[in-house]
User: Which sequence fits this backbone?
């Protein structure tokens, strides 16, 4: 009996001890549970409890997008629609700062311009509360999430927005919903040039800005401050042109399939510098023409001197004309420089033709003189043998056509030949010597007249040319 009581008490004690302690696995699980709670962010204690949790300050740099969108209520509106959809057209003001005119090409008929393009409009959906009435400035990341005007450049060939070191785009939003959208753009656009007066021409080119999708019923595009909306840097300059004027205009453009659109024009007038072309084209052409006149003072019998001189000037003029046309577009009309070069080419060519005529008449003269000498021995029995003496010899016959003689000597020699021909006719009965005398006189005066006619005609041409095109 006593033994049973002892065993019963021992059993009860063991049961009591086994109910109090926890196993090792339970202790680790409890420790992990406490650690996980410690790492969890604090939560607000429910009402009725006096606990005061500690909050971590949020990192606003990591939550930029959500904070901006929350402030501007971007998620609350549909920005695929224009401001005031269904109502009157939204006014969009534009101003431009021209940074540079990079290139103007006559061959491609285009120009390249770098500019700052700024848009101004009001979107009440972007209005926000501000105690200090300060604007907020953003970069291109927010531009993709709101509505902006869909501007494009009409007749543009290439264009791009600069992205060094980041996208050159700026968006500024004011508390009342006004928006300024600015970007830096380089555009290459078409410019229809009239080169009929080249290189003494003046060209007017235009850069045209227009909305691609919105007609004038949805978007009213205008220059913000008229001509003052267009500003240019003072350092803008071009190597071949002088920029005379920048001005703005506004017109309506009609498309048969879509309707009427507001179009803004940036017009600028360029006047070409002439000094480069004077040095490279006009002066060389003039010198070649003057060089061709030198042959008029060279003895007509000096064929190796006059022929190469004429051919050299003709080939040089051809090279000048080819060089000028190689750098010009293949237009179907005549340019001012073409008129000058081709007239100069004609003068050079005529100088070669002039020597051909002189040489032909000289050959004809020599044949007449040879026939005359063959008939002279028949006059040995004439009553005037003195005239047939040493005054006429082989040397005299060969030098009668010398253009370097003075006028007096020329007249005396003409008289001598005429008298000899008349005496020969009286003895032999031949006729036709007057024609020979006339041929000799024409050959004698061609170079003399050319020395006056060619320079005088070219000077008259220059006076008329520069009075018309300058």
Assistant:
């Amino acid at each position: 009996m006593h033994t049973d009581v002892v065993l019963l008490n021992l059993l009860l004690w063991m049961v009591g001890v086994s109910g109090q302690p926890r196993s090792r696995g339970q202790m680790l699980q409890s420790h992990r549970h406490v650690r996980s709670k410690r790492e969890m962010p604090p939560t607000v204690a429910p009402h009725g409890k006096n606990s005061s949790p500690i909050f971590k300050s949020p990192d606003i740099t990591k939550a930029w997008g959500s904070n901006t969108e929350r402030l501007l209520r971007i998620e609350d509106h549909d920005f695929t629609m224009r401001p005031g959809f269904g109502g009157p057209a939204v006014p969009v003001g534009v101003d431009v700062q021209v940074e540079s005119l990079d290139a103007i090409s006559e061959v491609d008929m285009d120009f390249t311009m770098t500019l700052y393009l700024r848009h101004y409009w009001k979107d009440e959906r972007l209005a926000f509360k501000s105690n200090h009435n300060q604007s907020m400035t953003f970069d291109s990341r927010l531009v993709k999430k709101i509505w902006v005007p869909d501007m494009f450049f009409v007749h543009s060939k290439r264009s791009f927005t600069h992205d060094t070191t980041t996208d050159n785009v700026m968006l500024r939003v004011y508390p009342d919903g006004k928006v300024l959208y600015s970007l830096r753009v380089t555009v290459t656009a078409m410019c229809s040039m009239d080169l009929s007066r080249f290189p003494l021409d003046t060209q007017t080119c235009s850069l045209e800005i227009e909305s691609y999708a919105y007609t004038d019923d949805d978007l009213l595009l205008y220059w913000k401050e008229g001509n003052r909306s267009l500003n240019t840097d003072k350092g803008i300059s071009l190597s071949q042109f002088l920029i005379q004027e920048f001005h703005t205009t506004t017109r309506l453009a009609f498309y048969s399939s879509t309707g009427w659109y507001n179009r803004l024009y940036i017009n600028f007038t360029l006047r070409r510098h002439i000094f480069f072309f004077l040095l490279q084209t006009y002066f060389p052409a003039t010198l070649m023409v003057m060089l061709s006149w030198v042959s008029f003072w060279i003895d007509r019998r000096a064929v190796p001197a006059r022929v190469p001189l004429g051919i050299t000037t003709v080939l040089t003029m051809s090279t000048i004309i080819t060089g000028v046309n190689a750098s010009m577009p293949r237009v179907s009309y005549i340019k001012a420089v073409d008129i000058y070069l081709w007239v100069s080419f004609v003068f050079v060519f005529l100088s070669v033709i002039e020597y051909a005529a002189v040489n032909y008449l000289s050959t004809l003269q020599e044949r007449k003189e040879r026939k005359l000498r063959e008939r002279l021995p028949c006059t040995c029995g004439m009553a005037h043998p003195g005239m047939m003496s040493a005054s006429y010899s082989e040397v005299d016959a060969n030098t009668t056509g010398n253009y370097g003689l003075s006028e007096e000597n020329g007249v005396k020699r003409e008289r001598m030949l005429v008298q000899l021909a008349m005496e020969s006719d009286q003895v032999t009965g031949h006729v036709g010597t007057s024609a020979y005398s006339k041929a000799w006189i024409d050959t004698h005066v061609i170079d003399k007249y050319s020395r006056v006619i060619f320079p005088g005609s070219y000077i008259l041409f220059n006076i008329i040319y520069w009075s018309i095109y300058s």
